[in-house]
Structure formats: C-alpha cells, structure tokens
C-alpha cells in the first residue's frame, strides 16, 4: 500500500497528507492489483458501456488500462488536488477519462443514481486506517450507495477478509447482494502456485466469515474482491414534458 514508506495512519483521510505524498512521489502506482489481475472480474461485472466511478484514483494507471480494453466513460475522483491536476494534464487527450477533486465521503457534485458501476481499489482500506475510521467508512458507503444506480455494482478490492469487512457492508440500510472472490497478491507465493480454481468463480461465504480450508483468514498473500450489487431495479426514464410530440402524418 505504501511502497515501503512509514506514515502516520491518522493522516490517511487528510488532503494535506496526500498532497504532500503526491508532490514527493509523482510516479504512477497501483495499489494491490494491476488491471491485468483484475480484468477477468471487472469484465464479468462491469459492462464496457457503463458509466464507471473510480474512487480514490490516485496516480494509478488502471483507468487508462480499462480504456485501452474498451471502457468508454470513467470518472476518477481523489481528495488530493495535486494528483488530480497531474492526471488531468496526463490524460488531457483521453476523452474517456475525467478527473475531479472530490471527497468520497461527500460527493454532492453527483446526483443520486449517477453511475452504473463503482470500483474501489484501496479507498475504503485507506479510510479504515485513518482517524474516525468507522464514521468515515460509513459515510463513504452511504455516498457510494446513493450515487450508484439500482442494480449497479460496487466492486471493493481490499486486504480485509470477511470478518472485518462484512460488518460494514451489511450495515443499516445497505441492502447489498454480495458475491466474494479471492485473488492472490501479485508476487506472492500463492500467485506463483498453480491452481485449478478460476478467479471468476465466487467463494462461498459462511455465516461466521470463514472461507473453508482452502483459504486462511488474515492471509497476507490474498486480496478480497467484494462485488456488491445495489438491490432494486432502475427507474424508467421520465419523459421530458417540454418536448413537443411529433406531428401526426
């Protein structure tokens, strides 16, 4: 997560911390997984015609890789104005990518049900390492759910196993339908091992949060992907009353 550097965890929710970090370290960095490792899952759950929100985008190249794979509309947000300015400049000639300075805990810029899909690669975990973690995490999930369309998918990529993440995802008024996938951490022993398990096959979640003998909880070689579908159906489009009816022939 931190490229080997030591930071005060309470700073993770602060704009000043991230502005300073991105000012000192301008090179691109993808937390946890690159697109190549996530593409089977993203392709499975996120249509390439979807309007996608990438929360806590930082200076990662995953959105660029998604565009190269055919995705057409990705809005990227981050709390750091420094990194947003850098990414706007970098991708000024890529119309499929938009970058905005925004706090994921307060996304008033977006109307309800603005996005088909939301991808979170480390944003939730970052808030969980910061000050007022439970409040920040709850506010984020409320906003994520608000701006996501009914039937839309929130994909959470995290190091948190079900015992420490399901309590948040199953919080009051969340009403998610959740499917879990487990993928090996790049460069780990698990990643080097051959396995007959297909990444796109869901992992059975037990009531106590355990995953069976194949997966040990708190395994540092694993990342967890929670695919959370917002229950409900999309509302039909409301006709524009100002438009005149076509003339009868």
UniProtKB/TrEMBL annotation:
Pfam families: Methyltransf_11 (PF08241). This is Methyltransferase type 11 domain-containing protein. The keyword Amino-acid biosynthesis does not apply. Keywords: Methyltransferase, Transferase. Belongs to the methyltransferase superfamily. GO terms for biological process: methylation. Residues 53-155 form the Methyltransferase type domain. One of its GO terms (molecular function) is methyltransferase activity. It comes from Riccia sorocarpa. SUPFAM superfamilies: S-adenosyl-L-methionine-dependent methyltransferases. InterPro entries: Lys/N-term_MeTrsfase_sf, Methyltransf_11, SAM-dependent_MTases_sf.
């Amino acid at each position: 997560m931190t490229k080997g550097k030591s930071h005060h965890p309470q700073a993770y929710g602060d704009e000043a911390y991230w502005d300073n970090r991105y000012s000192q370290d301008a090179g691109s960095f993808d937390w946890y997984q690159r697109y190549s490792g996530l593409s089977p899952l993203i392709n499975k759950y996120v249509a390439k015609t979807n309007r996608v929100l990438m929360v806590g985008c930082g200076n990662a190249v995953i959105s660029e890789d998604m565009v190269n794979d055919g995705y057409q509309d990705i809005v990227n947000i981050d709390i750091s104005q420094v990194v947003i300015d850098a990414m706007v400049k970098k991708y000024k000639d890529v119309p499929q990518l938009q970058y905005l300075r925004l706090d994921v805990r307060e996304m008033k810029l977006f109307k309800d049900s603005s996005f088909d899909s939301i991808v979170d690669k480390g944003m939730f975990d970052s808030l969980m390492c910061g000050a007022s973690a439970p409040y920040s995490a709850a506010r984020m999930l409320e906003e994520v759910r608000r701006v996501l369309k009914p039937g839309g998918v929130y994909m959470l990529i995290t190091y948190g196993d079900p015992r420490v993440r399901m309590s948040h995802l199953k919080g009051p008024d969340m009403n998610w339908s959740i499917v879990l996938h487990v993928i090996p951490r790049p460069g780990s022993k698990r990643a080097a091992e051959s396995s007959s398990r297909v990444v796109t096959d869901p992992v059975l979640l037990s009531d106590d949060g355990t995953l069976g003998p194949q997966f040990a909880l708190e395994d540092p070689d694993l990342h967890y992907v929670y695919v959370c579908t917002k229950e409900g159906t999309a509302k039909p489009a409301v006709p524009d009353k100002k438009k005149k009816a076509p003339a009868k022939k």
